[in-house]
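Same chain as my last thread, 280 residues:
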Amino acid sequence: MTEHEPMMSDPAFTTDHVSTGYGSHVVSRRLSLTIEHGTRTALVGPNGSGKSTTLKTLARLIAPLRGAVYLSGQDINRLPTRQVARQMAILPQVHEVPAELTVMELVEQGRFPHVGALGMLRRRDDEAIQDAIGMTRLADFVHRPIDTLSGGERQRAWMALALSQQTDILLLDEPTTFLDVGHQLDLLELISGLNRDRGVTIVMVLHDLNHAARFSDRMIAMSAGDVVADGPPAEVLTPRLLRDCFGVEASVVPDPVTGSPMCIPHSPIFSEDEENAANG
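reply #2:
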């Protein structure tokens, strides 16, 4: 095994008492997680709970304030950028791209970690690009500038960029943003297919708890920067968690099609101060 090959005997990610945040603002303290290869993990929690910050820390988009993140057994912040990009792809929540860039030009960027010394795309790069475009159904959009696309079409283009890297690990920060319900399910089925058929490790932030329960093997629920529940969806998605973590009274029933737990919210739970404020 060369130094550029992932150590598959090690977990995909390990953090040991990591602190995350931005400058002097600490989001999580002493966060310890292990993500095994070949698994589907959904990070869930209310707004501001730390789930996106955790994903960004795993993705090396932000450095931990304390501690280290290990990618297949190696400190991710000590690895060359190209080596990381060959092992892990990220679909961020916010995208910035030159307006005139076409879909094809965007997706081609996913192959840059793999190009040779001359920076030329080779046959296997073209095959990876076409595979990503086909999976995201973007064949009719390849020559369109990104700024002419709808929000959902742009999201699919960014997904194609991540897929064209053909990595063993895929990190997704709210991947269903801007998508209607049909395209949400289509994308999540695609992601699950990558895990099932190619063994891709999936870590994703999802707002929709029912989607998280259906399309993951493991749910990690966060609140105020801490992990408050971690395990199979049937153990995590409970009325008590919905009450304590999300502030809603809800029922949890089996999905009639998949059998996965499905929550049905009934009413919000207000604190005494909030109720007094609402009542004037």
